[in-house]
């Protein structure tokens, strides 16, 4: 049976076409499913929430933690890909100091590596050069010429791996900010940078709104199922049941969208009342119950960030770590 399948997928046009479609669509479509299966709605909400812990990173000045992903993101763009992975090792130090919970680690790893795998796979498909044409991992048959790529290239996969390092570094630096900084601290840091406090408020509200939206959608789907509406997904081999399942999902979209929109408007109204009740934006000069003062740990963190930035600039000026085309 196995030799017959091997001959079918490698030596027949129909088999090569089926295998080509599988390579194009199975991996991209499986990534969101894997993301939801490993994280879920609750995990996605926890990913954007503050986790209190008695760590050195938690006690740092919020201004330093807001600047950290901004500086790391710029350095990752300037550096060549191999030095970007060295920068990734540096971004792991705050995570080691924080020691997040096992649940948070699973959520962060899924959040970091899911888009990285998608980027690597897409570059393997569509990063085509005159050199990569001769290094194809799998060549698409003529029936897939409409795709615009000759196949899955090893050069493209390598290029995607190089670019994925920048995504992983940026996400690693950004998620540590969300993990160790409260929304009030982020707003305070934006204000201290002479930016409107409303910018920090909009930033924190947006981070909270997305996971709440996904969680509400999940709750509405569960409510529909409790009331007898069949949303059970058939198995992949139950081909005859898929049209009925897709029809039921399309019919359920208005039923979910209307209460979701009403709930979002209510949440927005409540948020606006809370902001007004706390007199947000009534004075140009804001006051804070807790004023942050630079400590020894803050000076050490600033020194380390400055050292990494200066070292990066020196390596770039010496044409050692500058980004190659």
Automatic annotation (TrEMBL):
Domain of life: Bacteria
Topology in the lipid bilayer: Multi-pass membrane protein
Cited CDD domains: EcfT (cd16914)
Keyword hit for Ubl conjugation: no
Residue stretches spanning the membrane: 20-45, 66-96, 108-128, 167-191, 245-265, 301-321
Localization: Membrane
Keyword Transmembrane helix: yes
Keywords for this protein: Membrane, Transmembrane, Transmembrane helix
Alphabetized PANTHER family for the sequence: PROTEIN ABCI12, CHLOROPLASTIC (PTHR33514:SF13)
Protein name listed in UniProt: Energy-coupling factor transporter transmembrane protein EcfT
Species, as recorded: Dictyobacter halimunensis
């Amino acid at each position: 049976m196995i030799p017959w399948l091997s001959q079918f997928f490698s030596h027949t046009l129909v088999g090569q076409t089926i295998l080509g479609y599988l390579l194009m669509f199975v991996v991209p479509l499986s990534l969101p499913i894997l993301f939801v299966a490993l994280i879920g709605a609750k995990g996605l909400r926890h990913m954007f929430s503050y986790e209190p812990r008695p760590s050195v990173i938690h006690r740092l000045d919020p201004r330093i933690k807001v600047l950290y992903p901004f500086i790391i993101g710029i350095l990752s763009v300037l550096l060549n890909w191999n030095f970007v992975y060295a920068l990734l090792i540096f971004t792991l130090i705050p995570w080691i100091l924080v020691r997040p919970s096992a649940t948070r680690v699973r959520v962060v790893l899924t959040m970091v590596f899911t888009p990285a795998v998608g980027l690597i796979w897409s570059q393997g498909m569509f990063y085509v050069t005159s050199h990569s044409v001769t290094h194809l991992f799998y060549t698409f048959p003529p029936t897939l010429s409409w795709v615009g790529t000759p196949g899955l290239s090893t050069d493209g996969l390598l290029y995607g791996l190089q670019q994925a390092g920048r995504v992983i570094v940026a996400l690693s630096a950004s998620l540590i900010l969300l993990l160790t900084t409260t929304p009030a601290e982020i707003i305070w840091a934006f204000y201290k940078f002479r930016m409107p406090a409303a910018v920090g408020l909009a930033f924190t509200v947006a981070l909270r709104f997305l996971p709440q939206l996904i969680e509400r959608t999940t709750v509405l789907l569960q409510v529909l199922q409790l009331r007898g509406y069949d949303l059970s997904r058939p198995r992949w081999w139950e081909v005859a049941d898929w049209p009925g399942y897709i029809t039921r999902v399309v019919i359920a979209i208005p039923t979910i969208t209307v209460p979701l929109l009403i709930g979002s408007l209510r949440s927005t109204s409540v948020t606006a009342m809370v902001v007004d009740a706390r007199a947000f934006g009534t004075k140009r000069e804001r006051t804070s119950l807790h004023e942050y003062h630079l400590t020894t740990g803050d000076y050490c963190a600033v020194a380390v960030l400055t050292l990494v930035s200066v070292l990066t600039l020196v390596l770039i000026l010496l044409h050692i770590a500058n980004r190659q085309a």
